[in-house]
Amino acid sequence: MSKILDPDIMSRLAPLALNSRQPMLGDVSGRHRSPVRGSSLEFSEYRNYVPGDDTRRLDWRAWARSDRYFIKEFEADTNLRMSIVLDASGSMNYGLRNPQGSVATRLDFSKRIAAALAWLASEQGESVGLSTIHKNQPVDVPPRRGARHLGHILEQLEQVNADEDADLSTALHHVADRLPRRSMVVVLSDLFMDLRELKPAIEHLRWRRHDVAVFHLLEPSELEFDFDSPVKLLDLEGGSPLLADPAMMSESYRQVVLEYLDSITELANRSNIDYHRIRMDRTYEEVLAQFLLRRS
After folding, report:
1. Which CATH architecture has domain 7-23+79-294?
2. Structure pTM?
3. Of 10, 155, 174, 208, which is least packed with CB atoms within 10 Å of its CB?
4. CA 53 – CA 48 distance, rounded (Å)
5. Between β-strands 184-189 and 211-218, what pairing exists: parallel, antiparallel or unpaired?
């Protein structure tokens, strides 16, 4: 097992299936609906016979009733391709000390979610890929199946470190262009960027008919700004530090954050993406359980 996978947590999550929200185009037979017709137990519809069709799919009972030839169509089932996009920009290094004294960063939280999803998908026989948004050493692993490939992805996740700056929108455009067939794209990020740049990237993914799920990770102090004394704020992506007095700016800060979150929610609704706003005071097991159950 990987250092970022907890066997006890994975055993509790294993009974929950990872489902797509729309038909998928995979490589082999699987548990997910496909947009193409095939052979399965689930009947879809009748259509008129066309010369060249497989006569074994003719419905002779329908012919006996109507003296016309009909072909029975069935839903084809296929496997899922999942591409995980992990934000490794500097702001993902943010976190606060927990009661044990260690610092749990946004990147640590994201790695555990990504590793768990990769493991669950691999156990179902799905294809899994990984892309990291990183300035100096980006990772780009195309989706494949198999235990050895899963081990490679987990190894890459363990080695990811946050960088000063990275471009999420460019990375999402790259993923949309690189995936040749409709897939499930899971984005793990703090979404600290200009939403005018994020909008066309999300729309590009949806235009390519990918099933997009976004985990938006936020530390509670970022939402509440509940500091009780002046603080020195450091820009983790290379900007200048800022001295701030919470008593003077907390109310206006919360208003700006509320407007920002409302804009993201509106973008998610308009683009029909599976958006999850995650407070980091929750456990990643709870986050994943809710995600998987909503998709069931």
Report:
1. 3-Layer(aba) Sandwich (3.40)
2. 0.80
3. 155
4. 10
5. parallel
